[in-house]
Amino acid sequence: MAEIRLRNLAHSYSRSPSGPADYAIREMDHVWEQGGAYALLGPSGCGKSTLLNIISGLLSPSHGEVQFDGKVVNALPPEQRNIAQVFQFPVVYDTMTVFDNLAFPLRNQGMNEAKVLAKVNEIAEVLELHPLLRRRASNLTADEKQKVSMGRGLVRDDVSAILFDEPLTVIDPHLKWKLRRKLKQIHEQFNITMVYVTHDQLEASTFADKIAVMYGGQIVQFGTPRELFERPSHTFVGYFIGSPGMNLIDVQPCAGGVRFNETVLPLSSALNQQVAEMPAAKLKVGIRPEFIHVWDGPNEDALCAEVVHVEDLGTYKIITLRLDGQLLKVRLQEDQVVPQQQAYLSFPAQWLMLYADDILVGPKAQGGQP
Amino acid sequence: MKVHNNKAWWLVLPVFLLVAFSAVVPMMTVVNYSVQDIFDHSTRYFVGVDWYKQVLQDTRLHESLLRQFIFSTCVLLIEIPLGIAIALCMPTKGRMASLVLIVLAIPLLIPWNVVGTIWQIFGRADIGLLGWSLNSLGISYNYAANTSDAWVTVLIMDVWHWTSLVALLCYSGLRAIPDVYYQAARIDRASDWAVFRHIQLPKLKSVLLIAVMLRFMDSFMIYTEPFVLTGGGPGNATTFLSQTLTQMAIGQFDLGPAAAFSLVYFLIILLVSWLFYTAMTHNDKTR
């Protein structure tokens, strides 16, 4: 059990990195608290797996420190870090039975056989591997093998944390859901810190209490699924989380707010002041498709937009609109009236986010890290 | 019956002819010799299994068969573990890796009778580096006169010549193991021995199967190198099956018994190879 703290951590695979582009992990500080269920979410190649391998000790970072409970562990090899890691593709020891596979990490630390038997049975119970215990691991299906891989991580009671590197990639969709539930249960049962790497937002939000979104080698936001949805602190989070992602519009400052083309969006005086302080910044406004208000008819506050396309996705509809030359997506529930040709919109002030150089302007979401 | 489908058999004909001329016809010639006593074109007698009986009772053949089994067993017991050990020690990347690969490949490129000649000279007590050095160190060594010296020299020569093949096969097998297995093993705190026993060795199985079969068959058919090195001596101490067979067929021109013996020889190799194959793939089939 441990709190994992990353301090000034950076990593480059190149021996003589010359610029930020050479870094797989750009300098970051981050804390995974003891007992949390975390997801590390991001697109392929954003540095998720690199970060995971640094935590487990398979990779040694170019800069900075990894601390477990305040103790620097940079110099410790993975076998001394009390970390379990489950990889994207199942790793089983082919010549052993399922039982011996699960017992392997325990026997390696010299546990007596009676205790090994008890632990293995306990984990086999949780993972529903009991009927397979006597089978040779080489003859299992992919998802059974992955359960064995996970089991080897879970069976050790000395682990500080379990790291999952997209563990459900090879699993059938209907089993994915079951295994994810299983992991969640195990987390609740054993109170182990778990970090779950994925590029699937649904997987991240069903598993984790808090999600760290990674982009370009940095954690751009760390928060609950709700925080990520409601107050993305980086345009990437807005775009990556949600289906469809956030509407992002390039804007210029003007009197009392910002504008694009002829449309002026008023801002609060606090925000206006902040905008005035950074004249060189590239500004964007963002609003979730769910939060754009669609009026039934013309209205004083409403902006008039042209309906371009309506996509019916069963329980909801996605409408593409053109507002003053700018395309917007709006998500309507099935009971809402679908506008024909013309739609009247307004952007509720609390859902309208302003970004300067892709970073949220205004009070940050809790735990957010620009 | 779909008669029209039989035309397809014509497509198999080229392969059939090729196999016939490369294997079946020569083999049938041998079979032909093994069941007849042939003097010339017109004078021949069918003798049935007489040659086989004679060959199977020939003590000279029994002795060389025994020597042959001991030799092949020693070859496998030395070359397979040594080859694996070398492969495990080989560097995996950089210029050293290419250098080591080239050095290991050199013995494999040398013609067999040259290998025999190299060791023949190398081991000589008067002018050979090895023989002369051993003798000046006070160790009496003479492969031409002493049976055990001759055996050791033939064995070392074979190890020198062929361990590279096992090492190179194992090296390629080791490179094919994904990194993630080693990573998982480190996470599981596996010892180096456990990594070898539970990851490397099982993953090497298919290349080891090839290595064992090749080294068994080759060593069981060894001819040129001991022939050049010791000529089968001292006495008959290093006379292996091929040499006995050659003596019988060409030296004494006993074509009938030689043909019968060739077939027995072939069947022994086939049988032992099959045993190895079955033993090594046995576990894959059990569930």
Topology diagram in text:
The complex is a heterodimer of chains A (370) and B (287).
Chain A: E1 4-12, E2 23-32, E3 37-41, H1 48-56, E4 63-68, E5 71-72, E6 83-86, H2 98-108, H3 113-127, H4 142-154, E7 161-165, H5 173-190, E8 193-198, H6 201-207, E9 210-215, E10 218-223, H7 225-230, H8 235-240, E11 247-254, E12 257-260, E13 263-266, H9 269-277, E14 283-287, E15 293-295, E16 303-312, E17 316-323, E18 326-333, E19 342-346, E20 353-356, E21 359-360
Helix pairs in contact in A: 2-3, 2-4, 3-4
Chain B: H1 9-34, E1 36-38, E2 44-46, H2 50-56, H3 59-89, H4 95-109, H5 112-122, H6 129-136, H7 147-175, H8 179-187, H9 192-220, H10 224-229, H11 241-251, H12 255-285
Antiparallel strand pairs in B: 1-2
Describe it.
The complex is a heterodimer of chains A (370) and B (287). With 370 residues, chain A is α+β, with helices and mostly antiparallel strands. Chain A folds into two domains: 4-235, 3-Layer(aba) Sandwich (Rossmann fold), CATH 3.40.50.300; 245-360, OB fold (Dihydrolipoamide Acetyltransferase, E2P). Chain A has nine helices and 21 strands. Chain A has helices at 48-56, 98-108, 113-127, 142-154, 173-190, 201-207, 225-230, 235-240, 269-277; strands spanning 4-12, 23-32, 37-41, 63-68, 71-72, 83-86, 161-165, 193-198, 210-215, 218-223, 247-254, 257-260, 263-266, 283-287, 293-295, 303-312, 316-323, 326-333, 342-346, 353-356, 359-360. In chain A, the strands form four sheets. Chain A has a six-stranded mixed beta sheet with strand order 6-7-8-3-9-10, with helices on both faces. In chain A, strands 13-12-11-14-20-21 form a six-stranded antiparallel beta sheet. Chain A has a five-stranded antiparallel beta sheet with strand order 15-19-16-17-18, with no helix packed on it. The two termini of chain A are 28 Å apart. With 287 residues, chain B is mainly α. Chain B has one domain: Orthogonal Bundle (MetI-like fold). Helices cover 74% and strands 2% of the residues of chain B. Chain B contains twelve helices and two strands. In chain B, strands 1-2 form a two-stranded antiparallel sheet. In chain B, α1 crosses α12 and α3 runs antiparallel to α9 (192-220). The radius of gyration of chain B is 24 Å and the shape is globular. Chain B starts with 8 loop residues before the first helix and ends with a helix. The mean pLDDT of chain B is 87. Chain A binds chain B through residues 53, 56, 58, 77-79, 83-85, 87-89, 91, 93-96, 104-105, 108-109, 135-136, 138-139, 149, 152-153, and chain B through 178, 180-181, 183-184, 186-191, 194, 198-199, 201-203, 283-284, 286-287.
